Amino acid sequence: MTELLAVRDLTLGFRTDAGLARVLDGVNLTIDAGQVMGLVGESGCGKTTLARAVLGVLPRNAAEIAGGEIVFKGRDLLKFSPGALARDICGRAITFIPQDPYGSFNPVFTIGTQIMEIMKWKSPRRVTGHWSEHAPLLGPYPAERRRADMETVVALLDAVQLPQPAQILRKYPHELSGGQRQRLMIAMALLPEPDLVIADEPTTALDVTIQAQILGLIRRLANERNVAVLFTTHDLGTAYEICDAVTVMYAGQEVESAPTDRFFAAPAHPYTGKLLASLPRHDGEVAGIPGEVPNLVRPPGGCRFHPRCERASEACRSGKPPAEMLDPGHSVRCFHPVRPAA
Amino acid sequence: MSPILDIRGLSRHFPIHGPFGRQVGAVRALDDVSLQVMPGEILGLVGESGCGKSTLGKTVMGIHRPDGGEIRFDGVDIAALEPRAQRAVRKHLQYSYQDPGASLDPRWKIGRSLHEPLIIHTTLSTEERTRRVADILRAVGLPEGHLDLYPHEISGGQQRRVGLARILTLHPKLVILDEPTSGLDVSVQATVLTLFRELRQAFNLTYMFISHDLAVVRMMCDRVAVMYLGRIVEIGPTDQIFETPRHPYTRSLLAAIPRIGGKRITVDFWLKGEPPDPGNLPSGCRFRTRCPRAEAVCAQEEPALVAIGLQHAACHFASEKPA
User: Fold this and answer.
1) Does any CB of chain B come closer than 8 Å to the CB of residue A286?
2) Is A127 inside a domain boundary?
3) Does any CB of chain B come closer than 8 Å to the CB of residue A43?
4) Site from B182, B186, B269 to mutate, A interface, most A CB atoms within 10 angstroms
5) In which band, very low, low, confident or very high, does the pLDDT at A4 lie, cut at 50, 70 and 90?
6) What is the pLDDT, as a whole number, of residue A1?
7) Where are the domains of chain B?
8) Predicted pLDDT of residue B321
9) A321 in a structural domain
10) What is the dihedral angle through the alpha carbons of A261, A266, A269, A270, rounded to the nearest 10 degrees?
C-alpha cells in the first residue's frame, strides 16, 4: 500500500502564560491510502492538536512548531505557504468532520447555501489557475458547473441516507436532528473528493444507536471511495468498530501503533494495557489508572508515562524510548514492553 | 421490604406555545411512569437523549412539578408536601448533576462549597462543620489542601468527587446520579465508579443511576429501567435485561454497543432512523415507527408493561422468544 500521510518527529508547543506547553513531543504517524487510522488517547493527550496540525489550522500566534515534518503525498505541508495550503490542501485534499455537529453550521443560512458555498470554492470540477483565484470575491460560479455540483450534492446526501435531500437543502440547521447534521457533515467532508478525511471524535455527541449508524456510514463510504480517515476518539470500542489500525497517544507522545486486531489482542505498551483494563466489564472488575495526566508545561523527562507506570526503570526517566517493531505494523515506544507469552 | 422510592403513574408534560402564547401541544417528557427503588440497590435508568430520564430524576427531586401521579419517598408522598416540608425531605434525597464543573460556583473555594449544604440543612457549629468536611473529603479521596482551591484549578474527575462530597455530607439515603461519568476519560471513569461503590458501602446509600452508557450500567446496577420517549419500555434485573431483552428497543440499544473482540456492529446494525418528534408522538406503541417487528396492532394499541418472570416489558410481542 502507498503511504498517503507521514508525520515524522513532529514537535510543537503552545505559548501560555505559564510557559511553553509541549503538546506534541516527537510524534510519528503514518496513514496509507484508503486506511482508517484510529488515534486514541485521553483528553489532553494531543490528538486534536495533531489532527489540526495535519489540517494546518493551528492558531498561528500561539503555536510554535519546533521540528518535524508532515509529508502528504510526498510534499511537506509545513513548507507550504498559507495561501497554497488553503487553496490546494485544506478542504480539498484533506477535509474535516467536527466533533460537534450543533455548532458547526451557521444558524442564519440554509443548509443548501452553506453546502453550495463549499462547492463554489472546493468542488473537484473547479478549474485551477483561473484568474479569479487572485480576486476571490469577484470569482464567478458558472451556471453549468453549479448545476453539475448540485447533482453531486443531492447524490451524496442520498448516499449518507438523508431522506428527501432536495428538501433538506432548503432547511435551516435548527430544523435537523444531531444525527442528520452529522450525516450532512460527513457529506460535506466527502464532497471535494478528498484523499484524507480527519474525523475529530465525530460520534461523541450522539446516542449509541445513532453512533452505530454513523460509524457504519463512515466505514462504508471510506471503503467505497478509497478515502483514508484519521479518526480521533477516546472510546476504544468505537476504534475497534471502524479502524484498520490504531495509534495510542499519551501526553503528547505516540506510545503504540498496531493493526486493530493485533492492538486489542496483544497490547504491548503498559499504558495501552491499563487503558483496556479501564473499560467497564460485565463481572464488575475495573481498574483505573492511578495518578494524573502530567502538566505539559513541565512534562516528566524521558517516557512521559513513567510516573504512573510500575514497569518504569532508570532508563525510562532519562531518555525517550525508541520505536521498536514487534511485528509488521506493530511498533511500540517502551523499554519494557509487555510481550505475549509465547 | 418496602421500597425507599415508589413512583406511581408519574407524568410531566412541557407545554409547546404557538403564536400569541397559545398552547398548541405538549412534550410528554414523562408519561405514566411507575417504578420502585428498593433500599440499598442501584437502579439504572437508560435511554437515548430526550427520552425523559433526566426529567424523571429532576421531578423526583422536586425541581420539576409533576402533572400527575405520586412520588412516595419512605412512604410519604413528597410531591404533595408543603415547600418547607419538602426541603426537610430533600436532605435525604440528593441529586448529583451531570456537569460538576458547572454546578460548583466558580468564585467559591471548594471549602466554601462544601460548607454550604451543612449551613442550609444542619445547625452544626463551625468547628463541627470543619470536622465533617474534612471527614467527607477523606472519604472521597481528595487531599485536604484542595479546600483552598477554586473549581477551575482541579481536574474533571476531582470536580466529580467534590460534587459527591457536597451531597454526602448530609448523609442522604437516596442519591440520583445524573450521567455521573459523561465527559470523563475511561481511566478516570474507572476510578470514579469504584468510588461510587465504596461510598455506597460506607454510607449505606441507594443510587438511581441515570446514564446512556450501557456498559457502565451493566457493571454498576442491580436493576435497569429502559426508557423511550417518556415511557418505561422495559424494566428488570440487570442480568436478565442484558441477556434476554424482551423489548425490540432494548435489543437495538444492546446491539449498538461496540464490543471489543466481538462482531463489528457497523456491518449489520438494523435499527434505522431516529426517534420521532416528542411533541407529536405516533399512535399506539411509540417505538413502532422504527421497530422491525411492528404490526397493525402496534399502531392501534399502546402496549402496557407486562411481567415475564422478573422482567417487565411494554411490547405486544414481549412473550415471544427473542430470535
Assistant:
1) yes
2) no
3) yes
4) B186
5) very high
6) 62
7) 5-92+172-313
8) 62
9) no
10) 120
Residue A229 lies in a domain: yes
Contact B168, B136 (CB under 8 A): yes
Q: Provide the ipTM.
A: 0.80
Q: Which among B155, B189, B257 is the nearest to A292, CB-wise?
A: B155
3-state SS string for A221-281:
HHHHHCCEEEEEECCHHHHHHHCCEEEEEECCEEEEEEEHHHHHHCCCCHHHHHHHHCCCC
Test A207 with B191 for CB contact under 8 angstroms: no
Name chain A contacts of B242, Cβ cutoff 8 Å: 282
Cross-chain Cβ contact A207/B48 below 8 Å: yes
- Residue A268 CA: distances (Å) to CA of A302, A309, B92: 18, 13, 48
pTM above 0.90, yes or no: no
Q: Using the beta-carbon criterion (under 8 Å), do A278 and B186 form an inter-chain contact?
A: yes
pLDDT band at A102, cuts 50/70/90?
confident
Scanning every residue of chain B, which has its alpha carbon at the shortest distance from the alpha carbon of A283?
B219
pLDDT digits (tens, 9 = 90+) for A265-312: 889 999 998 888 888 877 767 777 877 788 888 888 888 999 888 888
Are B271 and A241 within 8 A, CB to CB?
no
In this complex, which of B214, B219, B274 lies closest to A281 when CB atoms are compared? B219
Q: What is the mean pLDDT of residues B144-163?
A: 87
- Tell me whether residues A42 and B193 touch, CB distance under 8 A: no
Does CATH place domain B5-92+172-313 in 3.20.20.10?
Answer: no
- Name the one residue in this structure whose C-alpha cell is 444507536: A209
A85 lies within 8 A of chain B by CB: no
The CATH number of whichever domain residue A101 belongs to comes to 3.40.50.300
Q: How many domains does chain A have?
A: 1
Q: Check CB contact of A154 with chain B, cutoff 8 Å.
A: no
Provide the pLDDT for residue A294: 82
What are A260's three cell numbers? 486493530
Structural domain for A100, as ranges: 3-106+194-250
Is residue A102 within 8 angstroms of chain B, CB to CB?
no
- Any domain includes A80: yes
B186:A207 CB<8 A: no
Binary contact (A278, B267; C-beta < 8 A): no
In this structure, which long-range contacts are made by residues B109-112, counting pairs with CB atoms below 8 Å and at least 24 apart in sequence? B109/B147, B109/B148, B109/B149, B109/B150, B110/B146, B110/B147, B110/B148, B110/B149, B110/B150, B110/B151, B110/B154, B110/B162, B111/B147, B111/B148
Q: How many CB pairs under 8 A join A and B?
A: 116
Q: What is the spatial distance between Cα A290 and Cα B261, in angstroms, rounded to a whole number?
A: 26
**Hey, which residues does A155 pair with through a beta bridge?**
none
Q: What is the pLDDT of residues B93-150, one digit of tens each?
A: 999 888 877 889 999 999 999 999 999 888 899 999 999 999 988 888 888 888 999 9
pLDDT at residue A342 greater than cutoff 60: no
- pLDDT class for A134, splitting at 50, 70, 90? low
Note whether A213 contacts B: Cβ–Cβ < 8 A.
Answer: yes
How far from chain centre, in Å, is Cα A255? 17
**CA distance, residue B308 to nearest chain A CA (Å):** 23
Give me chain A's average pLDDT, please.
Answer: 87
Task: Indicate yes or no: CB of B257 within 8 angstroms of CB of A208.
Answer: yes
